[in-house]
Every structure is written in C-alpha cells, then in structure tokens.
Amino acid sequence: MEAISKAVFLQEAIVKRKKTQRQSFDGGDGGGYDENMETRVLKLEECVNDARDRLARIETRLDQTATSADMHREMTDQTWRLVTFVCGFGSALVAVTYFMATHIR
Questions:
Q1: How far apart are CA 7 and CA 78, in angstroms?
Q2: Residues 6 or more apart in contact with residue 48 via CB below 8 angstroms
Q3: What is the DSSP annotation of the chain?
Q4: Which sign, positive or negative, has the C-alpha torsion 17, 23, 25, 30?
Q5: 105 and 77, same structural domain?
Q6: How far apart are CA 10 and CA 14, in angstroms?
Q7: Domain for residue 102, yes or no?
C-alpha cells in the first residue's frame, strides 16, 4: 500500500509541476491564447517571403558565377594558347632567320 501511495504522490507532483510550467507560458489564465500572436506570425511570414526572394536572387547570381574549377580550366587553356603561340612564333622567326642567312648574300 505504501508503495502505491508513493507512486500516486509522485504522479501528482509531476502533474502539479507541469501545470505550473504551463501557466508560466500562457500567462496563468489557462487560456493559452496570445492576442499579439496573430500579428507576430504575420510579420514572420512577411520576413520569410522576403528571405525567400533574396535567396532566389542569390541562387540566380550563383548560377551565373564561375566556380574555382571553371577558373582553373580557363586559365590552363589560356596558358596553353600562349605557349603554343610563342613556340610557333619563335619557330617562324628561326625559319625566317635561317632563310635570310642562307639565301641572301
């Protein structure tokens, strides 16, 4: 019997604690309704819509932005174009110099 009464006592203590915690959140009147909640929720919804629009613009801008890999690939291509041009132009100068040295006296 004594064990049952202790269990009932503990359950009642837990219920009382939950009630006091609930009352501290809803103002103690038991209604649980906050009059300003509607306006606060509307403001939050407006902020979410604004954030969604901003995020969409950022994503659009990021889609148009080159990534690090894109930049690396373009720089490598440009470097090889430059190397090819310099080697070709140098070879052409050597050929012209050789032609001038052998045929013009």
A1: 81
A2: none
A3: -HHHHHHHHHHHHHHHHHHHHHHHHHTTSS----TTHHHHHHHHHHHHHHHHHHHHHHHHHHHHSPPHHHHHHHHHHHHHHHHHHHHHHHHHHHHHHHHHHHH--
A4: positive
A5: yes
A6: 6
A7: yes
On whether both 80 and 102 belong to a single domain, the answer is yes
Contact 52, 46 (CB under 8 A): no
| Residues 59 and 80 grouped into a single domain | no
pTM for the full predicted model:
0.42
What band does 77 get if pLDDT is binned at 50, 70 and 90?
very high
Q: How far is CA 52 from CA 27, 57, 103, in A?
A: 34, 9, 75
11 within a domain of the structure (yes/no): no
Average pLDDT in the chain: 81
- Say if residue 23's pLDDT is above 50: no
Ranges 23-27, 39-43, 88-92: which has the least confidence: 23-27
d(CA 93, CA 47): 67
